[in-house]
Amino acid sequence: MKTFDAIIVGGGIIGGSLAFELATRKLSVLIIDRQVPGQEASWAAAGMLAPEPESADDIHVLPLARMSLASYPRFVEAIEDASGLAAQFRSDGTLRLYFGVDGESERDRAAACHRDAGLSTESVSIAQAREIEPSIATSATAFAWLPYECSIDPRALTHAVLTAAERKGVELRHGTAVDQVLTSNGRCDGVVAGGETSRSRHVVIAAGCFSAGVDRMSRYAPTCPVRGQIVALQPSQNAPKCVLRGHNGYVVPRNDGRVIAGSTSENAGFEKQVTAEGIEQILRAATELAPSLSSAVIVDTWSGLRPDTPDHLPILGPTDIEGLWIATGHYRNGILLAPGTARVMREWIVDGQPSLALEKFSPLRFAAEHRKAAR
Ligand SMILES: Cc1cc2nc3c(=O)[nH]c(=O)nc-3n(C[C@H](O)[C@H](O)[C@H](O)COP(=O)(O)OP(=O)(O)OC[C@H]3O[C@@H](n4cnc5c(N)ncnc54)[C@H](O)[C@@H]3O)c2cc1C
C-alpha cells in the first residue's frame, strides 16, 4: 500500500490546481477521480474570469476573487512551463451591456459598486463602446467597460493543469470513485477507492457538485448541482473580440474563432441534457448582445453542473477531523477562483495558516444544520 502526503478526491480544476501547488512544495500527491479527470464542470465552463460582485453573497468572495485574478498570469505561466501546453489565457476586458429604460441607472449603480470594491469599471458612451467592440447591439441603452476582466479556455487550462501536476510528480488514478474516507484515532488517514486503500496525512475533498455524495461528507460539503447549458458558435463575420455580457447571458470569444454563448441556471438534479428551451434562451441573449451572431453556425452544445452550496459561498478549509480538508462549492466562479484556492489551501496545509481570512467559507458552518436534520 502506497502512502502520500496528500490525497485529493476529484480531478477538476480545483483538485488539479491544488495538486500542482502542493507538488511544487515537494509534497507527494495522489489525485483520485471516478472518471477521466477534468470532464465535469471544469470542462463545461465558459471561462470568464470576472471578479466583480453581482450579488450580496459575492462580496464575501471578493478578496479571494481579486487575489486569484491577480495571480492568473503567473499561474498560467507556471502551468504552461510545466506542461508545455497553452491554456489560452486572454486579457481583452469585458463590455457589459444594459438594455431598457433603466439601463443607465442600472449601469451607474453597478459601476459605483464595482469601484467601491476596488475594481476599475468605467461607464462608457455608445461611441466608446463601439470603438472597443464594433459587433455590439445598438439597441443597448448603457455600457460599462471592465478592462481588468480576462478569460481562458477551461478545457485547455484544466488539461494543462493536470499535465503540469503529473509532470511535477502527482499520481493520477482515474476510473475509480472514492467510496470511503478513512479515520483512525480521530484523524483522517486515507481513502478507499475501488476496494483499494491509499494512506495519506491529508485528504482533500474537491469533487465539485458531487462532494456531498462522497462518504459522510455532506455534513461538511452539502453541495448541489446547478445546470448550465452552453452553445458554441462559429461566426463568419464581425465576431466579438472581447467578452460581452448582459442581464440575460454572455458571449466569450475563443482563440480558435468560436464564440461560446451561455448560459442557463437550472435545478435539474444531476441531469446534463441540453434542452430546446435552454438553447433558445441562450441564442436570444447572444444575438441581443451581438446581432451579427444570428448568422453564426451552431457547432456544438453541452451542459455542466455548477457546484452550488446552501449559501452560494465556497467551502474551503479544515474540518473537525484532523487531516480532512474541503475545497469545493465554487459555484459560478471555480475557474476564476482556482489559483487563489490552490494557494490558500496550500498555505493552510503546508504552513498552517492561509494568507486571507476565510472563516466565512468554513466547512463547519453547516454542521449544526446537519445535526438537526439527522435527528
Ligand atoms: C455552464 C457553466 C459555465 C461556467 N462558467 C464559468 C465561468 O465563466 N467562470 C468561472 O470561473 N466558472 C464558471 N463555471 C463554474 C466552474 O465550472 C466550476 O465552479 C468549477 O469547474 C468547479 O471545479 P471543481 O474542480 O470543483 O469541480 P469539477 O470540475 O466538477 O470536478 C469534480 C471532479 O470530481 C470527480 N468526482 C466526483 N465524485 C467523485 C468520487 N466519489 N471519487 C472520485 N472523484 C470524484 C468528478 O469526476 C470530477 O472530475 C461554469 C460552470 C458551468 C456549468
How would you explain this protein's 3D organization?
The chain is α/β, with parallel strands linked by helices. 32% of the residues lie in helices and 27% in strands. The chain folds into 2 domains: 3-82 and 154-223 and 310-374, FAD/NAD(P)-binding domain (3-Layer(bba) Sandwich); 91-148 and 225-308, 2-Layer Sandwich (D-Amino Acid Oxidase, Chain A, domain 2). The protein has helices at 13-24, 41-44, 56-83, 103-116, 126-132, 154-167, 276-289, 334-351, 367-374; strands at residues 3-9, 29-33, 48-49, 94-98, 122-124, 142-146, 150-151, 171-174, 178-184, 187-193, 196-205, 224-234, 243-245, 250-253, 259-262, 297-308, 315-318, 324-328. Strand 1 (3-9), helix 1 and strand 2 form a beta-alpha-beta unit. The chain starts with a strand and ends with a helix. Bound molecules: flavin-adenine dinucleotide. Flavin-adenine dinucleotide (FAD) is lined by residues 9-15, 32-35, 37, 39-42, 44-48, 177-178, 206-208, 210, 214, 228, 230, 262-263, 304-307, 328, 330-336.
